[in-house]
Amino acid sequence: MTAPTPTTPPFRDPRLPFAKRIDDLLSRLSLKERIGALHQFTPAVERLGIAAFRTGQEALHGVAWMGPATVFPQAVGLGATWNPELVRRVGEAVSREARAMRARDERVGLNVWAPTVNLLRHPLWGRNEEGYSEDPRLTSAIATAYTRGLRGDHPVYWRTAPVLKHWLAHNNETARDTASSSVRPRVLHEYDLRAFRDTVEAGAVAGVMPAYNLVNGRPNHVSPYLREHLRTWTEEELLVCSDAGAPSNLVDSEHYFDTHEEAVAASLRAGVDSFTDHGTDSSVIVGRLEEALRQGLLTEAEIDDAVRRQLSVRFRLGEFDPGADPYGGGGNGGGSGAPQAEGGADEHAFDTPEHRALAQEAAEQAVVLLKNDGLLPLAPAHTRVAVVGLLADECKLDWYSGTLIHRSTPLEGLYERFGAERVEFAEGVDRVLLKTSAGAFLHVPPAPDTPEAARGAEGALDPALLAGRTDLAPLTAGPEGTELALVDWGEGVLTLRAPDGRYLSVAEDGYLRASADQPGGWVVQETFRLEPHGGGHLLRHVGTGLPVQVAADGVKVAPENPPAGESAAAGADAAAGAAPEVFELIVTEHGEEAVARAAARADVVVVVAGNDPHINGRETEDRTTLRLPAQQELLLGAARAANPSTVLVLVSAYPYAVDPTDLPAMLWTAHGGQAAGTALARVLAGDVSPAGRLPQTWYADDTDLPGLLDYDVIGSRQTYLYFGGTPLFPFGHGLSYAAFAYGESTARAEEQGVRVSFTVTNTGAVTADEVVQLYTRAVDPSVPRPLRELVAHRRLTLAPGETAAVAFELPLSAFAFRDVAAGRWRVEPGRYELLAGASSADIRQWTTVTLDGEPTAPRAVLEHGLDAADFDEQSGTEIVDRTKESGDAVTPMAGQEGELVFRHCDFGNGAREVTVEVSGEGTVELSLDDGPVLAKLSPSAPTSGPYDYVTLGVPLASTGASVATAGVHEVRLRLRGVLRLARVGFSG
Q1: Which of 10, 402, 838, 910 is packed most tightly, with the most Cβ within 10 A?
Q2: What is the C-alpha separation between 489 and 572, in angstroms, rounded?
Q3: Which of 243, 273, 819, 881 is flagged as catalytic?
């Protein structure tokens, strides 16, 4: 007899729709298997031939952490291109490399955690490099392009599955897991949600990752907005992946829940589908989920919903259809059932000539010419160039970079383009010796001849776990000192580098070695401080916080006052002089002197300044100032004094406040990836006319900035949308080697929107790109509206004399604002200006259009009352969570009196009584317009907790109160004490 052919289970039948296949597979998984699927690292189910799976592959500007890959410019640099089509191609290249790397390394995932769509609201945010822009529309345009490239263009299968980061209102590293962003409804809808919404609605997003912070007093990992907003924007099943360790934070640092079981249950119910916690060890999260289910905090149906969303992503990635997957190798884990790559060769493209050319093109398009008095472009055949500065011979990576296969520094790019004989280099570091109190000098032993691979070259699921090298000999002290290159990166944070280029670093054993190719790591081990002490300096290691000691067996860090149990062991070292060493700093060469010498011999000086992405402004650490570090200001001043023909090139992850008055030329580029130096040299030489545009406002001074934790973009007049001061450089700014003329603009209101058209002509002598920007402004709004708001843009390439006709079709929604009184979007009737130009401040043509819109209706307070968070203006308050599940309340800031203002409140024929829903203890005072206090309400005793509300009511204290309150008024509420106000009601 012939054995019967095994029946193909429905979940493996590609003829069936995904929904039916997912239901079938879900029904075959045991409860234990389904709960196991909720951790980031989902185990294989061998009995069904299902491979292991993990969520999360970093791919912000190239495949990160998993070894060599093409490195594109940082995200903020991609934003500076203002070119969605270019960014789409970058996303496509990244997704192809992810597939190629997965084909040879099963650790590489296809559920990519990118892009970051947090808005660059505050330029001191440490993770500024990860976002695209301060503007939600530009951010969503670039993010949508990148996700489309990552997704691929097949109608069914996805090349990779992108997850947007970090939901929501997340712009601070300071107290990032405990700070709450107070976000009023208008800011929530018009600003923070908009970038996510537009990108999700475009249809190439597989999910989102909640941020570490709280919004309005509630952690993002239990945010009701996941259900109320995110999941309503698309019919796709969106996978919500927690940020690393965030589920545990709900108990451990935020203390929002008493138990971890409550925390995981609340997260799952809110919409979190995959828990990134405790690294690769899923047992802790699985145990918490199982116990939550046993306690009745969760249902199996809620677990199934989360697993279904994960399975939806896996089906779209082609994991269960290896023969049909056009991209090949759709599986996300090895072992039984893992499909093999079957896509074409181009679907596994890696480090191809096309990808290298694209990396250079992206780097070129990201360069922003901030100022040019005619010094640029340079003539390579006739110009002697001095290239100076701490970043002149650097190609810096950031935390979310891959390992470089190719690299190009500014110096190398200029050597290649101008010829080495015409280029002189001076780094500008201080050369120093460190002399001990005993008269010896720190000495770096020679390194072995065999080169060591760059940090991270082998790839790591979590590069934070990569250990420093211990195979090299530690530093010693002796009669022969090693001259070290000292760089002060600002705020007293230093790096020290040996003559062979190795940075001094401290490994887990505590010894000081010259072992790192660059500063890096989750906790940087290559930074130090020199602290004045006893006529010399302590050398304190920043990563451990410990001072450097000279011991018999080498130089190391150790506690200043070791615990009693260690005193005996430390005795030998102490006898040998192993107390914290007091060093004499001997400067053998001042960096500014070397810079001045090189500058004086050159026709033109190119000063390359900026930041190291791992130091003073990065994930976990915000900046404290917009100013350049003092050492770099000193180098710039020395170059400028020696040679007025000085070009400043800022290579940085964020804006700086640098006075350009005495500089004939100034450029900015983000860290531009592997082709950064070549791109910069081509721009300086005029091979490429720069056309990058600033994706965020560059403020002139720290005093222009709001508080880092002040998220009220409207009330605090933040970003180009509301900032009324004079910026150093405005949003959208960027110059060209060509000139462009704008023809007269016309605008026509149509039933569904507005059509705007004009022409742009290249009146210059070179082919160049122009970034056409269209802004709108409500002429006479009833509420504060943006001074200018970007509604469309386009990057054009025009030959000399060429004219392009430009037309934009704007939907009516482009003119809408969030009406908090009505709880919806509304287009207000009236005139709107349409402003076309080269930046938000460089408007070349404008016209107006009148829209019918929907008239403003006063608040019907007798019928609907007032939700406290729906204010028009506030001072001294913050929004907090009304309950742990949903809703907002308002509370005074600690130690302050708060005030809420509600405009256009219609009391009809008048009100006689007011009620408030409050918790805690304190006082609410009510007045109308600028009149006297009409009501004062206080709980008779503090409520039992912040979520235990009571309703208080009192008559309005006025003779003939109903007559006095009749008509439309402004309501003012003053809040005092430790009190939460949720709602105000009125009755006639």
Answers
A1: 402
A2: 36
A3: 243
